[in-house]
Design a protein that fits this description.
The structure is a homodimer.
Chain A (H helix, E strand, L loop, with lengths): L13 H13 L6 H10 L6 E2 L1 H10 L6 H13 L4 E3 L7 E3 L6 E5 L4 E5 L4 E5 L7 E14 L2
Parallel strand pairs in A: 4-7
Antiparallel strand pairs in A: 1-3, 2-3, 4-5
Chain B binds a DNA duplex through helix 2 and helix 4.
DNA sequence: ATAGCTGCAAATGCTTTGCAAGGCC
DNA sequence: GGCCTTGCAAAGCATTTGCAGCTAT
């Protein structure tokens, strides 16, 4: 096997990685090269929706060296510590959302594309009483959309 | 409910199977013993939430002879023709709901239990405009609940 | 130094499928 | 009889895990 030297082969990430390092340490995770790499893809500004595979493809395309297993591990760890949020839309795969605040989604059932709906643009009046001894953990609204046939 | 006898000729079976037979034929499916059996479990009055495995366990416990593969096939066929509805709650398995009308759910994240919320007890004000050329296919509201820690 | 992380491959768990035998119409 | 359905086992997928080697702190 070929041993690669420990040099980042993709561009311009020192300063964003600097911030990411703090972000990761702040939640108790070591700032490894792999976590910094995918963190730079995920937390670069705009909110994103990814699957393990889409993120892996993207990382590989960007020249990063990271295995799919590590992507899975990182996405789950990021979710555990609140850096990401899982979105339930497709029973066959798991979507992760970099927007962890309370908001909802459009899901295009035709192409699998997810779009955010700002929290204040949806109003859910929840009249029903909860089963006894239960409290609300969260509310998810998914609006499935499709092309005008 | 217990099957009284093993009728295997063209003789009439019990009357709930009689109704089911029509129901199945009405959607273009042959009234096979297996489909009638699980239909009797699913459409016996009250609305139900099942997974392929839970329904299989139940069928076996009721003395029915049916394979898990056939359960999967039947649940998918029933869903295709509108006799069932898929509910997205758990990325690791598929839930089916015998209530196909517009309504929402409580999902107890502690034990995986699903509860219906009548349609008129939830009000979703949908202000956001849809992406161009798209129409709404459906709206799902999932309220995740948990025990009072 | 050492506890934690990575990556590969194998394992897992749910779901689907190929195909021969059997059942419904 | 002909075509659809069933059931088994095998395949398929997304995801997780065991473990040896590597790395961050």
């Amino acid at each position: 096997m070929v041993t690669m030297e420990n040099v980042n082969t993709h561009t311009n990430q020192n300063e964003s990685h600097q911030t990411l390092t703090d972000k990761l340490r702040g939640v108790g995770l070591r700032a490894t090269r792999q976590r910094l790499d995918i963190g730079s893809l995920l937390f670069s500004g705009k909110y994103r929706h990814v699957t393990a595979e889409s993120l892996h493809d993207e990382a590989i395309a960007a020249g990063m060296k990271i295995s799919l297993a590590t992507i899975y591990n990182a996405l789950n760890q990021f979710t555990d510590v609140g850096l990401l949020r899982e979105v339930l839309v497709d029973p066959t795969r798991t979507y992760f959302d970099t927007n962890t605040s309370s908001h909802h989604h459009f899901f295009n059932i035709d192409n699998g594309h997810l779009t955010d709906i700002p929290h204040d643009e949806i109003n859910v009046s929840c009249l029903p009483t909860l089963p006894d001894g239960q409290i609300i953990d969260g509310v998810d609204v998914l609006i499935r959309i499709k092309p005008v046939a």
